Amino acid sequence: MSLVSYEEALASYDPVMGLEVHVELGTKTKMFCGCSTELGAEPNSQTCPTCLGLPGSLPVVNAVGVESAIRIGLALNCEIAEWCRFARKNYFYPDMPKNFQTSQYDEPIAFNGYLDVQLEDGEVFRVEIERAHMEEDTGKSTHIGGATGRIHGAEYSLLDYNRAGIPLIEIVTKPIEGAGHRAPEVAKAYVAELRELIKALGVSEARMDKGQMRCDVNLSLRPNGTEKFGTRSETKNVNSLRSVERAARFEIMRHATVLTDGGTIIQETRHFHEEDGSTTSGRIKDNAEDYRYFPEPDLVPVAPAREWVEELRAGLPELPRVRRARLQAEWGLNDQDMQSVLNAGAVESISETIAAGAPADQARKWWMGELARRANETGTELSEQPITPAQVARVCALVAEGKLNDKLARQVIEGVLAGEGEPDQVVEKRGLAVVSDDSALGAAVDQAIADNPDVAAKIRDGKVQAVGALVGAVMKATRGQADAAKVKDLILEKLA
Amino acid sequence: MPGITREEVAHLARLSRLELQAEELDHFAEQLDVIIGAVARVSEVAGQDVPPTSHPLPLSNVMRADEVRQSLTPEQALSGAPASEDQRFRVPQILGED
């Protein structure tokens, strides 16, 4: 199927989006039982009668799970329910051994909020939040047999329930309208901002690559100038910021192609494919009533006291937008430079490098220069580069101490990135220290003068600009490890 | 009587991933009718002064500290499973999803 272009799609249709983000909380234990949530444990070693859904077991809610949900709600400018219940979402699928997921239905703990997100050109877009509710994660299936390890053609499946019952907060936006051609960018910026917020709250590491934060992108089109929403598709488990943007973009083009052709959009879930940014049809969505939600009789209602809510509100950390404004002022950046730092995803790295002792301009120089280039080339996130802010700060310190010049510092960074160890180890292994030993340098200078008598004569005659050739010779002899300015001074001194 | 239809039973069967024969659809429609009728009688008794409730006890905010408690061993966890493999629960082919 060939798709209409993005521009053509937008010429006729207006996209409406809804984003559902699941955040796995970083609590020590599961939402309704005391099993550990530690990642990487042996299969089925972190289960108990409650999370296995065995008869007679009783769930009890995790206080930190509730507290985290309230804090997320408050940070999203939500109202916090005075009284709410859990509900059973019934479905028949082996990833939940109970045959239902404990969730919240019509009584979410937090509702009616918003999150302001900043787009790449600095424009601020307000995304309204419908609700944030508490629920639990499912187990992990492995499909055996069949060619691709996928469910189709599999002969049977194996289930590990270690993840079943890990607390999730699902954050649902209201329909995002009016973003027009910027809809995919808004989607990405929203998830990015939400991730920052979650990290600032300390309730989860929110690593998308580890599945700690996952996004479902709901999207529909309506003809430009009309009000009524079209039929939506729901692209599940989109697991990186870039993919969120690509998935929204692809669905806009796909919907437009179907609609332009006189077809109808089917309400279904879709799977996103990283390789080519496309989506393919999943299952036809059950209706909400098919889940036969009903209040969970095994759990009592949650009625957070207003004093507790206010206490949590007062204890919220500085939120990302406020913090960014503060850092911009502290780092002395204009709006444009700050925006580049934000677009490069460099705020944390720079901030931590400064915290590790580097001057602001140096920290920014490395992360926005050498390291940003590398991230770009390899198509990875800046924060994922195999170098820590502390290591960058150490390189800055070595430069400040005069032990490295700029060129050598670059090589040390390269060495650290190549896995050669800490900056000091790279300096030692590669023999990169600036030659500051005056006698060694003096010998190199004498040699250069002896090797280039003509040039030396010119300089003695007052043609000082000829010194460059001798400095070059010394730098070459010291393999770039001398301080060029110092070399120049030494030569001029000797030939004065 | 509420009148559960064969179609409704078929729909429920699909959601429950149950394969039912034609005569079973009729049979279960009748049975479900009886059950729903019995539950409906409760609503007749409940007056305006009895609020709907999801829990028999007037409790709220029963919470647990976030402290790890001992889990079952994988052997114990799997002991009731009809089939297991690689320390995981083995389930038959999953249809109608993905």
UniProtKB/TrEMBL annotation, chain B:
Q: What class of enzyme is it?
A: ligase
Top-level taxon in the UniProt lineage: Bacteria
UniProt keywords, alphabetically:
ATP-binding, Ligase, Nucleotide-binding, Protein biosynthesis, Transferase
Question: Region Disordered: start and end of each range?
Answer: 67-98
Key word Transferase present: yes
Q: Which Gene3D superfamilies match?
A: Glu-tRNAGln amidotransferase C subunit, N-terminal domain (1.10.20.60)
NCBIfam families named in the record: gatC
Its name, as the record gives it, is Aspartyl/glutamyl-tRNA(Asn/Gln) amidotransferase subunit C
- Give the originating organism: Kitasatospora cheerisanensis KCTC 2395
